[in-house]
Fold this sequence. Notes:
- By secondary structure, the protein is of the alpha/beta class.
- The chain has helices at residues 15-34, 84-87, 90-100, 112-118, 134-140, 166-178, 181-190; strands at residues 3-8, 41-47, 53-54, 60-61, 65-66, 75-78, 105-109, 152-154, 158-161.
- The protein has seven helices and nine strands.
Amino acid sequence: MTRSLAILLFDDVEVLDACGPFEVFSVANRVTTKSGGEPAFDVVLVGIDEGPVRARGGMRIAVDTTIADERHYDVVLVPGGVVGGVSANAPVISWIERRSTTTELIGSVCTGAFLLAQAGVLDSRPVTTHWEDIDDLRRQWPQLDVREDVRYLDHGDIATSAGISAGLDLALHLVARLVSAEVATLTARQMQYDWSDGQQA
């Protein structure tokens, strides 16, 4: 089964937060279609508006659609970056909140956890973010159980990862969970990425 998977993009998004998981899901599709199978994921880059976003560091990334598009996604991934501006964008926060009620899974990479918290998606289950932002997340949302020294946490319908490269670990874990461990292993091997599942606490 091909799952629709949205990655939210916004100005000052961290490049690897978004593009790292994109690469994982793209390579997983190459693995699953190599022997004639269906793609595992239909990855859609979702922007706030139709123009390209300017990622942190200046890289421009085109989007496929916008948050005004009401199509269904099985999985939604919210990357991090400089999130102060987007966390104050009510339509974006509303989009995240609405999607969390209809998706199989909503996840964050790095400071994307702040956007999930702002949208009221996170609950009493443990979450994580970039090590540099642990204290800020705890201070802004003291009700959250924020964990450090962990690459990712997966609770079935909500998943969060630590910073930047940890998004690769979460994405590969999701490939293992949603497709198969074999496909995840082959994907990591194709990417020449040293990975093994089971790193969550």
